[in-house]
Design a protein that fits this description.
The complex is a heterotetramer of chains A (about 575), B (about 280), C (about 325) and D (about 100). The two termini of chain A are about 40 Å apart. In chain A, about 60% of the residues lie in helices and about 0% in strands. Chain A is mainly α. Chain B is about 55% helix and about 15% strand. Chain B has about 280 residues and is of the alpha+beta class. By secondary structure, chain C is α+β, with helices and mostly antiparallel strands. In chain C, the strands form 4 sheets. In chain C, strands 3-2-1-5-8 form a 5-stranded mixed β-sheet. In chain C, strands 4-15-14-6-7 form a 5-stranded mixed β-sheet. In chain C, helix 1 packs antiparallel against helix 2. Chain C is globular, with a radius of gyration of 26 Å. In chain C, about 40% of the residues are buried. With about 100 residues, chain D is mainly alpha-helical. Helix content of chain D is about 75%, strand content about 0%. Chain D is built from 3 helices and no strands. Classes of the chains: A mainly alpha (about 575), B alpha+beta (about 280), C alpha+beta (about 325), D mainly alpha (about 100). Chains in contact: A-B, A-C, A-D, B-D, C-D. The interface between C and D is small, with 7 and 5 residues. The complex binds heme-A (2 copies), dinuclear copper ion (CUA) and copper (II) ion. The site of dinuclear copper ion has 8 residues of chain C, from loops.
Chain lengths: ~575, ~280, ~325, ~100
């Protein structure tokens, strides 16, 4: 997944006449762009993790200087080595923002989507290559803006990734940078989603009907619609908050505010803080399915390949994904149960929230039933893909108590929530992404990643990531609140502090567990075992192209003759029938 | 790079009946609907939640309806000229098409000029809210609308959010009564008496905040459209020579976008000016 | 878990409960978690079975045909049905109770809660039962809610900062609001949580258990920590529950405070270890806390109020004498 | 009918339609402005204004943007979009009314 995939042997690349910067920097080739996304996003993932490791120190050892790096941090963030309240909040807000908008989505959609989707539908490229390049660079600028905000006076945004006003409107100018950054990131996603939908609908090769699409493509398609229709309201909200901050309007500022004993007379008032929450969550709930759907897509591909048998209930998978996408637009206020919501609305949103869990149950059920009667190959991609299932199950199930107002009274804004969603995004989505990297690495580089280092990456990661997040459920139950700079300041936090240490150590060990991956990643790029076009003996179209695929992807445009997962078809010589191979009757 | 040919770049796809570009622009417009949808939602929420009297009963109390009506006509006109240029291309008349495009461009320009006058008028018009009532002419008032006199000392502007505050005093000539007798003479108000002062810019009230944000965003869309149109007026010839169909399609897509901008205004106009 | 959570009445699940509506919340929490296990365990067993039984090995081939899994259908339907039950049968009744029928105004105690960065202001009407008016122009450090002190109704009002006095066994009706940013009123031991939003006034109501006076529950929250595991962070909110003796020399007197800052606290612990004390028997200095559950700025984590629960007449006494002295002493 | 293959005659027909629509739009604009000065009750005023605006909008979409001659696919996408638009428009307002708090 690196920008250098065909250095080793750029065979058949029509792009050879192009200068380096056109080929690898400002390239319009979906594969290069996919790699750029993946690489940038991995760095952000790493950065977001680093922020959190520093925070976890403050949580485990409140008020004690951060070892090694503490002294290098600016005073806005750490006073003589000790993280300060604002620094902690800034790190927290930026961890959330970076992980969601700069790491996971760009990996799942920008990276995997860009690289794999056109290949899986047999297209030579995206429908709008230039637009594709634009969306990467807009994303890049958004990232730079976010990072830059750490270095301005007052530090980065510190009002949580949710940026609730009035707090965020009173906040220092880091918040303004955050808003500009978000506007860029949203724009990038919009351009991307248009590109994905058009490509998928219009550029499928002959024979590739909708119900012959790999589930990964379906997941990407639904995701793109979520991005297309859910993101604009947040863009609007961002503009409104910018107006409040820069033009002194009061969209989110009610009348009669007193800030630090100063009556805010210069404000017109008459605004509504809840308006922001509605517009934010109208995006942010669909967003969480944007985080999970591509992961589900990746996992399905890998499970199908390594069980050597068709996915169980392909159609119900597809319908569930579509239904999930649709429902995700009408559950958002389950994040707002504690804002004084009456019974009518809360009933509606509880109901939709319970309903939306059903398609997830179906998807997971399909995936695990696919294991029955299989012949499972436990290679590294499969290990990560299999681990995804129980992790998502735990994360998903713990969503239910949050979805019921009564239990949410006790659990809202506690570490139980943090535990819930990290189980879906960290050991869930991140593992799916690792799985995807191990699985498609050969396609991208023509080389396989080391199995040994891979297993050395998987097992410790699996152990430690659970050590990080499992304790959070118990802490949440004990009432420990999230976004606490010093958890021991409150009685019930203090008594639960033992578990805090446990998950901090888990996080640091988890980081060490990533070393084999990083080594493997770069080592295999140049010295990994060379492989052919279809090392996993898989059926979908991307394996019909050479590894790495030349510019334009396919030597000759394939035609599709069968469904995506024709494994172990009785009476066939090989245990897999590629989609592009005509079946002798 | 040119070696890759993108399917359905020109010829429509049987399923959608559209070539890529056209399908793409429609999807983009769908997202635009959600963008303005959020803003309309804001408008409704703030207005419904507002205490009586906070919002004007009719936009004309603050805004200039005749100008806006003119603008509506202009924009609708520009929409027609836009399709006309597309129709001309369909009849293979590049020259005519370019003329229509130019007219469209000019209409858009006119629209912006009118908006400019509307805006500037608001920014030079002030309102003062007072801590306790004072006497102006015959009756007591708690707030005064009007223009600052030339000799009025400069207002202090906060660098955080640009809010105004009075240094020692303000000199303001109140507007004529709705009843209509001439401007009263300037009133002098001590800083201590002033609770709040603002021009009729965005910060004045939720109503004007919504007005400026929505029309402002719409204005940006106009500017964007103008840039694209200008680009196609200028490059028209060369693209047309390369591929007549490509150029026609480009204009069709631009048109779709342009009509949408028009469509948004058709809703903005009554909502902001007439209700 | 109990070990890690320190052996205390806080236990290893939900915190102790002292309100009467809280029971139904805890019940729901428990039922859901049982339900989650009922789903997850069989699911996990099946998962493990597949991994073992269907691993690739010489001579083993995958079957093209899917299993005819009726069970999955049933499982999914069962899940859906049970979710419906949780929603209609358990969650909504509680929520309706929690939101829809407030206690009658003549038999409840009204308290205005005005939150601000980073403190909770509690406004009591005083003996006359009338709240004095407030005006934001008057807001100052010494008059945090801008009470119009020279108003007749305000004369006997009581305003307390980060200090909340409640009668037990009497419906309490609080009206929450905020002066600056969004805060969230979180009273974990009563299972009460509600955002306090500027520009809105949101009512909540609950009743403290008859037996839950502060003095009664402090001893119940006693915990014993072996010196080996004693760590300032865990005991900073505690005082000695008994006289600690090392061969009948008192090394730590009952009521001695361990919450002095990190440095002093650790020194104290070291001394005790040196003296050879085996374990500490502690109780919370103040067992009931109201905290802030919504990020509201850099000291959000510090925003908390101490709660004193009294018997009805103790409370009356407190009101009587507190309402006499006008000036409130702010204690931080 | 896709605009792909269109005879000059078809185009001429189109043009006539455009002119007609243009005229109608101008008239309707006049109508809304006029009505708004009659000072109807809030409800009525909003009703009329939105009705007229919707008619105008539909005109533009159908004729200038040729929506009437597009394939079903597009309708479904726009319908979806329209549905979410309504949700976004209504739900926040409902919260104002279904809130246990007072604003
Ligand atoms: C990828 C991300 C992701 C996913 C998939 C989900 C999925 C779900 N989430 Fe989560 N959620 C978040 C990310 C996610 N969430 C985030 C980031 C937040 C916090 C935001 C913030 O405040 O900062 C959050 C917060 C959050 C809240 C608000 C909590 C609060 O603040 O008080 C709620 C409340 O309803 C909720 C509910 C749910 C539900 C019901 C699901 C459901 O979709 C889950 C459905 C899945 C299952 C039900 C499990 C799968 C099924 C099985 C186990 C198989 C069983 C087998 C058989 C039955 C055969 N989530
Ligand atoms: C997709 C979203 C996502 C992801 C993946 C994560 C991942 C992690 N998160 Fe995060 N988190 C959030 C989204 C996410 N988080 C959000 C939205 C919040 C709320 C913020 C707020 O309150 O506003 C939050 C808050 C949050 C908190 C609560 C803070 C507080 O409330 O005070 C904590 C506490 O421990 C935490 C921890 C972690 C940890 C330990 C991980 C780990 O799982 C991370 C593991 C990462 C890896 C294992 C990747 C390692 C990187 C590589 C291997 C790359 C290699 C590089 C190259 C090859 C170049 N997170
Ligand atoms: Cu107040 Cu957090
Ligand atoms: Cu959600």
């Amino acid at each position: 997944m690196s920008g250098h995939h065909d250095h080793s042997h750029g065979h058949g690349d029509h792009g050879h006449d192009l200068p380096f910067w056109r080929k690898y920097i400002f390239s319009v080739d979906h594969k290069v762009i996919g790699c750029q996304y993946t690489f940038t996003a991995l760095l952000f993932l790493f950065f977001g993790f680093t922020l959190m490791m520093i925070m976890r120190w403050q949580l485990a050892y409140p008020g004690q200087p951060i070892p090694f790096i503490g002294k290098y941090l600016s005073d806005d963030i750490a006073a003589d080595g000790v993280l300060v309240g604002d620094g902690y909040n800034a790190f927290g807000a930026m961890h959330g923002t970076i992980m969601v908008f700069l790491a996971i989505v760009p990996l799942g959609v920008g990276g995997f989507g860009n690289y794999i989707l056109p290949l899986q539908i047999g297209a030579p490229d995206m429908a709008f290559p230039k637009l594709n390049m634009a969306s990467y660079w807009v994303y890049f600028c958004g990232g730079v803006t976010m990072i830059a905000s750490f270095f301005i006076k007052g530090g980065a945004a510190a009002s949580g990734w949710t940026s609730y006003p009035p707090l965020s409107v009173f906040a220092s100018s880091g918040q303004t940078m955050w808003l500009w950054g978000m506007v860029l990131l949203i724009t990038s996603s919009l351009l991307g989603s248009v590109n994905f939908i058009v490509t998928t609908v219009q550029m499928r090769v002959k024979g590739l009907s909708f119900f012959r699409l790999p589930f990964f493509v379906w997941a990407q398609l639904v995701t793109s619609f979520l991005l297309l229709l859910a993101f604009p309201p947040l863009e609007a909200a961002g503009v409104l908050q910018l107006m409040d901050r820069l033009a002194g309007t009061s969209f989110f500022m009610p009348s009669g505010l007193v800030y630090a004993t100063e009556p805010q007379n210069q404000l017109a008032g008459g605004g509504s803080p809840l308006l922001w929450q509605h517009l934010f969550w109208f995006l942010a709930h669909p967003e969480v399915y944007v985080l999970i759907l591509p992961a589900m897509g990746i996992v399905s591909e890998i499970i199908a390949t390594n069980t050597r048998k068709p996915l169980w209930g392909y159609k119900s998978l597809v319908y569930s994904a579509i239904f999930l996408g649709f429902m995700s637009f009408i559950v958002w206020a389950h994040h707002m149960f504690m804002t004084g919501m009456g019974t009518t609305l809360s009933t509606f949103f509880q109901a939709t929230t319970m309903i939306i869990s059903v398609p997830s149950v179906i998807i997971l059920t399909c995936l695990i039933l696919s294991l029955y009667g299989a012949s499972i190959r436990f290679n590294v991609p499969m290990l990560f893909a299999l681990a995804f299932l129980p992790m998502f199950a735990i994360g998903g199930l713990t969503g239910l108590p949050l979805g019921l107002t009564a239990s949410d009274i006790h659990l809202h804004d506690t570490y139980y929530v943090i535990g819930h969603f990290h189980y879906v995004v960290a050991p869930g989505t991140i593992f799916a992404i690792f799985a995807g990297i191990y699985y498609w690495f050969p396609k991208v580089t023509g080389r396989k990643m080391s199995e040994f280092l891979g297993k050395l990456h998987f097992w410790p990661s699996f152990l430690f990531i659970n050590a990080v997040f499992m304790p959070m459920f118990f802490q949440g139950m004990a009432g420990l609140l999230r976004r606490q700079y010093d958890q021991t300041e409150q009685l019930h936090g203090a008594v639960a502090h033992g578990l805090t240490k446990m998950s901090s150590y888990g996080a640091w060990l988890l980081a060490i567990a990533q070393l084999p991956f990083i080594i493997n990643f770069f080592y295999s790029m140049f010295a990994g075992k060379k492989v052919g076009a279809n090392p996993w003996e898989s059926t979908t179209l991307e394996w019909a192209a050479p590894s790495p695929p030349p510019h334009g992807n396919f030597d000759k445009t394939p035609v599709v003759y069968c469904g995506p997962y024709e494994y172990s078809v009785p009476g066939k010589s090989k245990d897999y029938c590629p989609q592009h191979v005509a079946q002798e009757a | 790079m040119s070696t890759t040919v993108i399917p359905h770049d020109l010829e429509p796809h049987p399923l959608t009946g559209m070539y890529n570009g056209k399908f793409g622009i429609w999807l983009f417009l769908a997202s635009e609907v959600m963008l303005f949808g959020a803003l309309f939602s804001t408008y409704v929420l703030l207005r419904v939640g507002a205490p009586p009297g906070q919002w004007p009963a009719h936009g004309s109390e603050i805004l200039n309806v005749p100008l806006a009506t003119l603008n509506t006509a202009v924009l609708i006109g520009s929409s027609v000229t836009m399709v006309m240029s597309w129709a001309a291309l369909k009849m293979k008349k590049l020259g005519a098409a370019r003329v229509w495009l130019t007219v469209t461009f000019l209409c858009a320009g006119a629209f912006l000029v009118v908006k400019y006058f509307e805006y500037t008028d608001k920014f030079s018009h002030y309102q003062v809210w007072l801590n306790e009532p004072i006497k102006v002419g015959e009756h007591e008032v708690t707030t005064i609308k009007g223009h600052l006199t030339a000799d009025c000392p400069k207002l202090e502007v906060s660098e955080k959010n640009g809010a105004y505050s009075v240094t020692e005093h303000v000199m303001i000539t109140p507007d004529a009564e709705p009843g209509g007798h001439a401007h009263g003479e300037a009133v002098k108000i001590e800083a201590s008496k002033v609770k709040r002062i603002s021009n009729f810019g965005p910060r004045h009230s939720p109503y004007l905040a919504t007005y400026f944000t929505m029309t402002g965003l719409h204005g940006l869309h106009i500017v964007g459209g103008m840039v694209v149109i200008l680009y196609f007026i200028l490059t028209g010839g060369s693209i047309w020579k390369r591929s007549q169909e490509k150029y026609t399609n480009r204009i069709e897509c631009t048109g779709l976008y342009w009509h949408f901008v028009d469509l948004v205004w058709i809703f903005l106009f009554p909502v902001l000016y007439l209700l | 878990m109990n070990l890690l959570l320190a052996s205390t009445q806080y236990g290893s699940w939900t915190p102790p409960l002292y309100s009467d509506h809280g029971g139904s919340i805890d019940k729901l929490v428990d039922v859901i978690h049982v339900f989650m296990f009922v789903i997850f365990i069989p699911w996990a067993i099946f998962f493990g079975y597949c991994l073992l039984n269907f691993r690739a090995r010489p001579g083993h081939k995958a079957s093209y045909l899917p299993i005819k899994a009726k069970v999955s259908k049933y499982a999914e339907v069962a899940v859906a049905v049970f979710e419906a039950f949780l929603l209609l049968g358990m969650s909504m009744p509680v929520w309706a109770e929690y939101k829809n029928n407030p206690p009658a105004s003549d038999q409840r105690l009204d308290i205005r809660v005005v939150s601000q960065q980073f403190q909770w202001n509690f406004h009591y009407a005083g003996p006359d039962g009338k709240f004095g008016p407030t005006n934001i122009k008057l807001v100052s450090a010494s008059n945090p809610i801008g009470l119009v002190e020279d108003d007749a109704a305000a004369a006997d009002d009581i305003v307390r900062v980060n200090e909340c006095h409640l009668p037990v066994d009497k419906p309490i009706y609080m009206r929450l609001t905020s002066m600056d940013v969004i805060h969230s009123f979180d009273f974990p031991t009563m299972r009460v949580k509600q955002d306090a939003i500027p520009g809105m006034e949101i009512p909540i109501w609950f009743r403290v258990d008859k037996s839950a006076t502060t003095d009664a529950i402090r001893p119940q929250m006693k915990m014993t920590v072996p010196m080996a595991k004693a760590e300032w962070y865990k005991i900073r909110h505690h005082v000695a529950a008994v006289d600690h003796k090392v061969k009948d020399e008192v090394v730590l007197a009952k009521g001695a405070d361990l919450g002095v800052d990190l440095k002093k606290g650790n020194e104290l612990l070291d001394q005790l270890r040196k003296k050879g004390l085996a374990e500490l028997t502690l109780e919370p200095r103040n067992p009931l806390e109201i905290v802030c559950a919504q990020l509201c700025g850099n000291s959000h984590f510090k925003m908390k109020a101490q709660v004193m629960t009294h018997t009805e007449d103790e409370f009356k006494k407190w009101v009587a004498e507190s309402s006499k002295k006008q000036k409130l002493e702010t204690d931080f | 009918m896709s605009h792909h293959e269109m005879s000059v005659a078809d185009v001429k027909k189109h043009v006539r339609v455009y002119i007609g629509v243009f005229a109608l739009l101008l008239v309707l604009t006049g109508v809304t402005v006029g009505v708004s000065y009659l000072h109807l009750s809030i409800g009525a005023a909003v009703g009329v204004a939105l009705l007229v605006a919707s008619i105008k909008g539909t005109m533009v979409a159908c004729y200038f943007m040729h929506l009437i001659s597009e394939k079903a696919m597009l309708f479904w996408i726009l319908a979806l979009c329209g549905f979410f638009f309504l949700v976004l428009l209504l739900v926040p307002v409902i919260t104002v009314h279904d809130s246990v708090g007072v604003h």
